[in-house]
Each structure stands twice: as C-alpha cells, then as structure tokens.
Known about the structure:
Layout: E1 3-7, H1 11-22, E2 27-31, H2 34-43, E3 48-52, E4 54-55, E5 58-59, H3 60-69, E6 76-80, H4 85-94, E7 98-101, H5 106-123, E8 127-130, E9 133-136, E10 141-144, E11 147-148, H6 153-164, E12 170-171, H7 172-180, H8 189-203, E13 209-212, E14 216-219
Parallel strand pairs: 1-2, 1-3, 3-6, 6-7
Antiparallel strand pairs: 4-5, 8-9, 9-10, 10-11, 12-14, 13-14
Helix pairs in contact: 6-8
Amino acid sequence: MPRLLLIEDHPRLARSLAEGLSGSGYVVDVAPSLSAADARCGRHTYDLAVVDRALPDGDGLSWIRRRRDRGCDMPMLVLSARDAVDDRVEGLEAGADDYMVKPFALRELLARLAVLRRRAEGRAARTVRIGDLVVDFEARAARRSGRRLDLTPREFDVLACLARRAGRVVGRMDLTEEIYGPDAPASNAIDVHVAHLRMKLHREGGPLLHTRRGLGWILEEKP
C-alpha cells in the first residue's frame, strides 16, 4: 500500500483527511510541522506527500524546495487557502507537482493523488540492477549472474520493495506494511521471508541484502 506523509497542523482537518485517505488505501502519517515532517522522513520512505503551507515553523513550500534540492522526486501536492494565481504559480515553481485550494472535496484530492501516482509509476524503470542482480518488476522475476531466482510471490514482493529503495534502509514496519497493508499479521512472517530471500540471493553470489540492526534492511552491493 502507498505510504503518504500528510503535513498539516490543524488537528481536525488532519484527522479527517487521515481517515479519508486511510479508507482509500493509503498508509498515512501525520506531521503537524516541518520539523516533524523531517523526523518522519528520517524514519520512513514515502510515496507521496500532501503539504500545507501555513505551518508553525514555516511555509510548506520551503520544505518542498529543500527536498527537491536534495534530489527527492517524491510526488508532492500542496493544500492551501491561498488561492491567487501568483500563489499557485509559486507553489509549482517551488517543486510541487500539484496545488489544491482549500476548501476542497476529498474525491478531488483522491483523484489528483491517483494521477500523481500514475505519473510517478510511469517514470519508474521497469528493471533495477544492483550489482549482478536484475529485478524485473513487470515480469515479477529476478536474475543473478544471469540465473533466474526461484522466488515465491511474497519473496518477490519483499525483493521488489527493497530494490525500489536500493541503497536506502527500509524499516521493518515499512516493509511489513508495504507487503501486507495495515492489517499485517502479528508475527515474524516478514523476517522469515527476508531470511529465505537472503539465502536465495546469496546462494548465487556475494552479499547484497544486509541487516542494519535496529533499523531494518538495505539492498546494496558493497565494494
């Protein structure tokens, strides 16, 4: 399930939006300030962000600019009561992918987010290469040194999630929610899948799947 960061300081609106988005298939984390948003991004990887402008510690556009300057290509949508043409243009020039004016209808927000997701997926590569490992998302297949890996559907889901974030640590909670959604089983099932995947990957070559104790897992080739 896609994970969305909602940066909104109005408690009632944040709660209402989080409920509506969660009911439409998103895993939603709420940040009431820019500093809280930075902290969230330090712990999780997000697929989308919905950003208010008037926040306690600054304008949401400054946060978007900083993220873009760091190379972040996550789709971002601005929500704001500022409805002048200059305000909307400023938001888009800051790096926002879309700009919605308050008040708004949840249905329209969901439709716009769906467009942003489709656009991002269209930009995404069909395959990812990490060293001698090639992951084909469309074919749901993986090869190492030219040999196809015999993966179960769940093991491939785990590999795909890690491969899309290659070089970055993916936390246990993030990986579990990505694979199972919000109704994840209260068990160590994800650890079992990771262990089986690691065994199959490393049977064909050197270590690629590494554990970061207390943080999660990372897929990368070490020199």
